[in-house]
TrEMBL record, chain A:
SUPFAM superfamilies assigned to the protein according to its UniProt record, in alphabetical order: RING/U-box (SSF57850)
Organism field: Rhizophagus irregularis (strain DAOM 181602 / DAOM 197198 / MUCL 43194) (Arbuscular mycorrhizal fungus)
Localization: Nucleus
Superkingdom, taxonomy of origin: Eukaryota
Keyword Membrane: no
Transmembrane segments annotated in the record for this chain: none
GO biological process: anaphase-promoting complex-dependent catabolic process; cell division
PANTHER family assigned to the protein according to its UniProt record, in alphabetical order: RING BOX
Zinc-finger recorded as keyword: yes
Protein name from the UniProt record: Anaphase-promoting complex subunit 11
Associated pathway: Protein modification; protein ubiquitination
Family: Belongs to the RING-box family.
Pfam families from the UniProt entry: zf-ANAPC11
TrEMBL record, chain B:
Name used for this protein in its record: Anaphase-promoting complex subunit 2
Any one Pfam family match given in the protein's UniProt record, by short name: Cullin_AB
Transmembrane segments: none
Lineage: Eukaryota, Fungi, Fungi incertae sedis, Mucoromycota, Glomeromycotina
A single MF term (Gene Ontology): ubiquitin protein ligase binding
Organism: Rhizophagus irregularis (strain DAOM 181602 / DAOM 197198 / MUCL 43194) (Arbuscular mycorrhizal fungus)
Length: 92, 617
């Protein structure tokens, strides 16, 4: 017998390349979900990686940085926030 | 007095003469009758027959309604019968009245009018009673029976309000006896409910009748667990058998939750009708919006939204052409109905499919750098297409993991690599049991094509290298539980491709064998039975499992508790889950009860005297 596969339509889920089951440190929503102001995950609500290796929903972090109390620091370790450009590069 | 009787007997024989009698005969009859009347008048007997006459005429009308109107819903029986009254019944009356030669033409006319008024009213009553008693059948036949409803409207307008109650009561009884019984299918009940709404909306624009009828329906449908599923599946129906229901879906100005009972700036506002009951919500019943009434069967729209998501998910996952046009139209209708925010999850699901189309054409197209490099060396065509979904926005998908054929798993890796170029910092995880495979089997004597679930394709693919497999070996090869595999093997043996041998061995049939036709028929739809999405009940049980450890410890430490107490404690301590797709702790008492009872059945709890107790091991 010969089996000829004409077309294989599979189903896959996508995940952000972050450790499993992690949630955004700001909104506590899983990274694969979206920040509280967004409705669609993925392209419309991407992540941002900091120099300090912390990851957040980009919208969450930008909103955090706009608040006065943030003083431009990472909310997790209070180091000055800097974007990890090697990771951001791919996003652009 | 003896004469009276004979007179009426004669009358009795004469009157039913209708079509079919020859005109001359009829003329003779009329002449004879008019002569008889004159003789009776000269004996002064006519006056004394009035009561008997009236009684007889009423009987005649009843007979007429009974014989011709009953059961005929597609002809304007009211008009037919009125015609009969005026062309057949009243002329005889006229003969009787004109036997009195002293009466002027005018007074005969007056008497005739007075009699006909009385008789018309009586006819109306009889007709109305008859229609009310068979209203259930009228509703079932609707819209073919619309004429019957129109007739009833005309009659009801002439009769007093009492008939409205009679209608409600008779309909209630009919529903209880014929529809709201375990033997009736949920879909049939819903369809009848829809027809009922339409009929009563015609009969009574205020909706009071509807509200009174709806009660038993609502209570009964609530006991049907599949009510929401049936309702949603009729909305989602691809074949559009329920076109009207879908049309109704779009006919709204405001989403359900925003509708207020009283609108203060409504110039056409009317107070609720006099006979409205306490449950009467004017906005719903007055507009008699079918979708609203159906949806209001359920306490919250959440159940329906979840069902929509589930059914939408199964529709979308069976798609291989990425065409979401139909689903988008449905989505727009649902949005109008339930509000945009509630449908956002479903929107993401549909968007996933259309995004998948772009992803797929990128990965398989020439823009993909990996592919460009590859095509130089080998010109192999990718067999694999993919649907990439956002996991948190889809219902929990069931499915076991297994090893797909090597060729495909290689392509899956390539697909993932391509995806990571298209969507940086993201990766794919294949749900191997989902999807669809088109395969062609070339056997010695036949070539067959199938469209099957991946697991079946994987099984048959393995028979390419060797045509005899032991179940356990094959299970090891594709890394799946042998018990699950065994069930799946039947798919191919039912189709006459594989044959089960003793000792759990399976043999490929290179040449077709005679198959028992009864077996074949039994096999036909087995694949469709595989439900890929967890049912709502399963999802609920899953939700409770989160709390199970807590409940168990609580019962161990604090002793037995009543259902209500457990529920109270859970409500006060359970923190709303934050993930966007799961709702907060909204589990009601009923669900908790069924979960706890399930635990009792599974022998993890004890139930004694109204208290749930932990099992002491």
């Amino acid at each position: 017998m010969r089996v000829k596969v004409k077309r294989w339509h599979g189903v896959a889920v996508w995940r952000w390349d972050v450790p499993n089951e992690e949630v955004c440190g700001i909104c506590r929503v899983p990274f694969d979900g979206c920040c509280p102001t967004c409705k669609t995950p993925g392209d419309d609500c991407s992540l941002i990686w900091g120099e300090c290796t912390h990851v957040f929903h980009m919208h969450c972090l930008l909103r955090w940085l706009q608040t006065e109390g943030s003083r431009g620091q990472c909310p997790m370790d209070r180091r000055t926030w800097g974007i990890n450009f090697t990771k951001l590069f791919f996003l652009l | 007095m003896e004469l009276d009787d004979t007179d009426l007997e004669e009358f009795d024989v004469e009157l039913p003469l209708e079509d079919g009698t020859k005109l001359e005969d009829l003329n003779d009859e009329i002449e004879a009758f008019s002569k008889l009347c004159k003789q009776m008048h000269s004996l002064d007997l006519i006056k004394r027959t009035n009561d008997a006459l009236e009684e007889f005429l009423c009987d005649e009308i009843e007979l007429r309604v009974q014989n011709t109107c009953k059961g005929t819903f597609d002809k304007p029986m009211l008009r037919h019968s009125t015609k009969w009254l005026y062309s057949t019944l009243y002329p005889w009356l006229q003969i009787i009245f004109s036997s009195n030669s002293q009466l002027s033409h005018e007074s005969i006319e007056n008497r005739l009018v007075a009699w006909s008024k009385r008789l018309n009213y009586h006819f109306c009553m009889i007709f109305c009673d008859s229609r009310i008693s068979e209203l259930f059948d009228v509703i079932v036949d609707f819209p073919d029976s619309k004429i019957a409803i129109d007739d009833l409207i005309v009659c009801m307008r002439r009769l007093d309000k009492d008939y409205r109650y009679r209608l409600v009561e008779s309909l209630h009884a009919a529903f209880r006896k014929r529809l709201l019984i375990p033997g009736a299918g949920t879909m049939d009940i819903i369809n009848t409910y829809i027809s009922t709404i339409k009929c009563l909306r015609l009969l009574d624009s205020s909706g009071v009748l509807l509200e009174k009828i709806t009660g038993p329906f609502r209570n009964y449908l609530r006991t049907r667990e599949d009510a929401a599923r049936c309702l949603v599946s009729s909305w989602m129906d691809e074949k559009n058998n329920n076109n009207e229901l879908i049309e109704e879906l779009g006919r709204t100005e405001e989403p359900i939750d925003n509708q207020q009972d009283v609108r203060f700036n409504d110039d056409n506002w009317l107070p609720d009708p006099m006979d409205a009951g306490p449950d009467y919500k004017s906005s719903i019943y007055r507009s008699a919006d079918i979708t609203n009434l159906l949806v209001s069967l359920f306490d919250t729209t959440d159940l329906i939204i979840k069902e929509i998501q589930n059914q939408m998910a199964s529709y979308l996952l069976t798609k291989t052409d990425y065409d979401t046009e139909k689903e988008l139209t449905k989505l727009e209708l649902f949005k109008l109905r339930f509000g945009e925010s509630k449908m956002s999850t479903t929107e993401v699901m549909i968007k996933d499919i259309s995004d998948s189309k772009r992803i797929d054409s990128f990965i398989l197209g020439n823009d993909n750098p990996l592919r460009r490099n590859m095509s130089g060396s080998s010109s192999e065509v990718m067999m694999l297409h993919g649907t990439v979904i956002s996991r948190l926005f889809w219902p929990t998908l069931k499915g076991e993991d297994f090893d797909v054929p090597e060729q495909i798993s290689n392509e899956m890796v390539k697909y993932d690599e391509g995806f990571q170029i298209f969507k940086p910092r993201r990766k794919l995880q294949w749900l191997k049991s989902l999807g669809k495979v088109q395969i062609e089997l070339e056997l010695q004597d036949r070539t067959l094509e199938f469209e099957v679930a991946p697991i079946y394709a994987t099984i048959i693919h393995n028979f390419q290298q060797q045509d005899k497999w032991n179940l356990v070996d094959l299970a090891k090869k594709i890394k799946i539980d042998p018990i699950i595999l065994k069930g799946k093997m039947n798919f191919w043996s039912d189709r006459g491709i594989l044959k089960e041998l003793p000792n759990d061995e399976w043999l490929l049939l290179e040449t077709a064998e005679e198959v028992d036709p009864s077996k074949r028929a039994f096999a036909s739809n087995e694949e469709n039975c595989d439900n890929i999405i967890q049912s709502l009940a399963e999802q609920k049980a899953e939700e409770f499992k989160m709390y199970w450890a807590y409940i168990e410890n609580m019962l161990k430490n604090l002793g037995g508790m009543t259902l209500e107490k457990i529920h109270n404690i859970l409500c006060s301590v359970a923190e709303p889950t934050t993930s966007s797709s799961n709702s907060s702790f909204d589990n009601n008492l009923e669900d908790l009860k069924s979960f706890l009872n399930q635990m009792v059945v599974e022998d993890k709890l004890e139930f004694q005297g109204g208290l749930y107790k932990a099992k002491i091991n």
